[in-house]
Amino acid sequence: MEPVSFHLLTAPSPDRQEPLAVQLYRDLLAAIVAGRVPSGRLPSSRAAAVALGLSRNTVNTAYDLLRADGAVAISPGAAPKVLVAPAQPAHPAKRSADLQLSQRGQLWAESSRDRDRIALMTPGQPDEALFPRDEWARLLRRAARQPLGTAFGYPDYAGLPRLRTVLARRLSADRGMVLTPEQILITPGTQASLTLIALALASPGDRALIEDPGYGGARAAFVGAGLTLAPLPVDREGANPTGTPPARLIYLTPANQYPLGHRLSLSRRQAVIAQADRHNSVLIEDEYDSEFLWHGRETAALQGQAPERTVALGTLSKALMPGLRLGWMVAPPALAAPLAAAHRALGLAANVHAQAALADLIDSGRYRAHLMRIAARYGERGRMLAAAARALPGVSADDPEGGVQLAIHLPEGAEAGCLAALHRAGFGTAALSSYCLQARLSGLVSGFADATSERVARFAGILRDQLG
Known about the structure:
By secondary structure, the chain is α/β, with parallel strands linked by helices. 38% of the residues lie in helices and 12% in strands. It has 3 domains: 1-96, Arc Repressor Mutant, subunit A (Orthogonal Bundle); 105-117 and 128-364, Type I PLP-dependent aspartate aminotransferase-like (Major domain) (Aspartate Aminotransferase, domain 2), CATH 3.40.640; 369-467, Aspartate Aminotransferase, domain 1, CATH 3.90.1150.
């Protein structure tokens, strides 16, 4: 092979992603490893800079990187001396590898949901225009200026003490939960909480009962942890545990069933708790959309009836925005400390400044005012979408009792065509069938938090054209 000399070096290209000095470093290291420096020395930085049309600073930076790798030795006034090359190439230009995901990784990848694109009226997506930007910015600035004390490091990994205290007070007063601040863990969101539960409270092969149709995020967390899923049928009274097999985990969205929007009736609540008592199951109560309930009185949390075996989950994704990555978990008293240890081991902490800002927002009463303001808007938009859907031939949709999405039932065979047409038009609608394990439902799940009269009219027009 040709020896490396200043007139044979290829100049780095500004079109490549890496800085010029890094490009030169990698090219030179490849030459050294390949044995293309038989003279044992590289050109001086001045000669190389002239030959390549680069600054001496760029060349010197590349040489310093080589020295840090132990590839060359540099002495004042002398060209860099090449040291012994490694036996195996350290940075080959190409290397084939048969790397694959683990079985758990493959299950997680297969269970992933298509949420990477920004689209109109996506299920679970709040309206960004209603986010209280000025208020949140003020609270974040205040939080960033204050000393954090123990929260600066790791002692408060499970959550900022003040936020846990404020949340405990709110959940007790508003949701009827029985808890202490020490039972609360602050997480990056419900998906992180579900992963923690699946890994820490169940073993591979254990059974998890999950609502059918139900939340895909819970399905992904449980399947990824190696659990076996069993359907928990849903009707207008919510989840029905009658005839279901024993399970280690029972996952529910009792306040506002996702995606159908039904509330869990009192008799069903009692049946679910009795089932959990019989089989020593862990109840997982996902407080999905519990902030937005517009029909009748708000129902108390299931956790208040069975605090010793219920893990309650909540998130700020709908009330504020998903990008905050803030959620919470209320653990049973006996599991609070071990779950806190698992929470830390898995690295599921949330940003401390965001926690401080949220604590201020809740404690001041402005969070409640914000919820009332946006809930009124969302309620109007949900009813507007439901009315437009019901006006279509063969379509049914109930006025939503809460939440930020609506289940729309279509005639048999219409789901795929309607879904494809809506996606082409930029809507983030999901197939109702994709939420099912064994249930045979055909339709759509559409968000409405960002709905406008124009968007709803366009949405309905697309469905009308598809339904003929």
